[in-house]
């Protein structure tokens, strides 16, 4: 056979195969020829491969999804096949809590019970617990930042109001808390996230109570408090006004107490400027 004849035979064979591949559906019964499962089949080879894959699935473990009228027992069987433990105690979980959080056997027991009721596998339960702990850590970090910010803001506000008397006023307020409050009182958290002990109005109230006690009973009447005698800017302004009232020795250079009044006025002006 010449080379030309061989080439013609090969070409005819390719054409024949191409036609066969294109027309394989004609050999399929007409009632299933248009079935959706055959839409992706391009040729006889693909059909054979699909058949082999289907055969290999016969006998493999399969989980049927219960219908809408399924009972808890029906779903329980599904969860069991998927890998849910027989009881909540079957979950062996690693509970890596964020720094500052306290471990709770009660909480972990509740979580295991909820995971079992939801049909979670041990792997799913571990993932969920880990995700919760990450979220908790982020929330704790955010709360800590808010507390610190509130504390700094309160200090700035009170230093501005009390001026040079800040330390004395804080000592008075702390003494009141020690005498009449509890250790946990300043740590109570308010709805806005601040601690009660960092709230400016709470601190002012403690300070005012201390000032009232000292004014009615006597200076340094609260145990352990020794004040420096410094005044707030507002108190210093009032004392200055009393010293410099019209007709006072402050205005009369010949008065024997003139120098004392002038020095006191300078001291109060210094307190007013902080």
Give the end-to-end Cα distance, rounded to a whole number of Å.
117 Å
Whole-number average pLDDT?
76
What does the overall shape look like?
elongated
Largest sheet: none
Weakly predicted, low-confidence segments: 15-19
String of helices and strands: HHHHHHHHHH
Describe the structure.
It is a single chain. This protein is mostly helical. It contains ten helices and no strands. The longest helix is centred in the middle third of the chain and has 41 residues, at 122-162. It starts with a helix and ends with a helix.
List keywords for this structure.
274 residues; mainly alpha; 10 helices; 59% helix; elongated
Concise account of the structure shown:
This protein is an all-alpha fold. It has helices spanning 3-22, 30-33, 44-56, 72-82, 105-117, 122-162, 166-180, 200-217, 233-243, 258-272. Helix content is 59%, strand content 0%.
